[in-house]
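Quick one:
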Amino acid sequence: MEVFVEGVGLRGPGLSGWAASHPILAGAVPYVPGELVLPPLDLLPAAERRRTGLPIKLALNAGLEALASSGRPPETLASVFTSSGADGQVIHQICESLAGEDREVSPTRFHNSVHNAPAGYWSIALRSRAASTSLCCFDCCFVAGLLEACAYCITETEPTLLVSYDVPYPEPLNAVRPITGSVGVALLLAPHATSASFARLDVQAEPGARVPTRMQDPALEALRSGNPTGRALPVLGALAEPSATALVLEYLRGRTVTVAVSPC
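Output:
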């Protein structure tokens, strides 16, 4: 599948946006893990802003950054949202409520616990009625989302926004499902090259296990291997480089996905 990249969004520890992170991913500047910085979501009404948790803020900030450079109308843009576990803090709070004597669950918490909550808030913020898909695929959530977004982009010949996001669980869930840091990544993909395109992706699922592409920087590699959305970092690193690169990404049941990245 061949698609073209028109925009990138990135938020993570010490990765405050695509423009600021570009030299880090290109290897020109050392990566220093730091605080996660998220601008306020002014596009959401005040009531919705108060209800949003970290995963929703992370997903929407990454998506908005990818959208900003393209100039495309957001209300008509199809989207794919993907995450390993969505809002673990809300799940933890609901489990605490159900384990207590009262057993009453807050309607807001229940509303935010569903896996497509970020997609719903996206449609509210951007007034979008375009098609949207929400996926979950454990450690392969980014790769599954990339395949879905590419397939939709090509078969429907429509630009498609991919948003992947993952945040750590609180204890005791963290003990059985540890996730490193909070990472949000977005790619705006188009079926044909445009004046906004700066890279081409050739994406193909392959049978058989192969060694996945890793990050050279040890701290970035820890983020890649420890966070499901962090699996996107090799792709972002290739997008930050001016030369063509071939990548291998882990997928399900011993399969891998190859991504050839080349500049437009």
